């Protein structure tokens, strides 16, 4: 994500980065190394950025928001550690995963530890409403991951299943980040809701773009192998479109139902999805979500940072990583 969008909060993001390391500091060396590796691997830090930008709409001093910004990134990181175990992933962000370096058992405990640290930070505000929002989101993220597992290689699942999956997998935590950034400023409920919806629509656009990139991006830029979703049996929006509209939909159905065939014919499947116009269709849908996100900004006060939120929505559908 371009740092120009985050210019108003770049100093705060540096503090969050430092705080991430401080919050997973433990005397147990192997846990410290495993969790520390995840932080040093970097990342877009979108969730803390959205919390800080949302708060910046209403206040200039963001010191009060920093623990929450850190907590949101820790929640996200905990889900990544567990995801890599479930997906058996060796690479993430261009480097080896915690699962690859330390094995499944350490990874599960590392993820649990990071998540517990996030909850402790969120609890420091002494506000049950904030904790409830975070806890509810965390439960729904888990439910979304289970739904994704259960629907792997299932070509009978349709658009509704896909949208619910990506809402819980990605959009929810971005929406909560925007919502909590505003809620900690104690502003009008409609403005908090506008930022929550902005984050929701933006998160949907972000995940659909991610699903497009899984098919067409450069592996070096993406930081993981192209076609990972297909290999894992995750039926994404471009693939759903091809399953309905491709002249070879029956063949695609057969290939995508089989873990072995998905791995063997991943490049062929990608070609057929592209030929069917699956990527073009998914791009249209992500653009629609980005447009809905921008509409929510009209409920916010006219401050400079509002333009940053607007520009992020434009960028998300054009990114190549």
Automatic annotation (TrEMBL):
GO terms for molecular function: metal ion binding; prenyltransferase activity. CDD domains: Trans_IPPS_HT. Gene3D superfamilies: Farnesyl Diphosphate Synthase. InterPro entries: Isoprenoid_synthase_dom_sf, Polyprenyl_synt, Polyprenyl_synt_CS. One of its GO terms (biological process) is isoprenoid biosynthetic process. Belongs to the FPP/GGPP synthase family. This is Heptaprenyl diphosphate synthase. It comes from Thermosyntropha lipolytica DSM 11003.
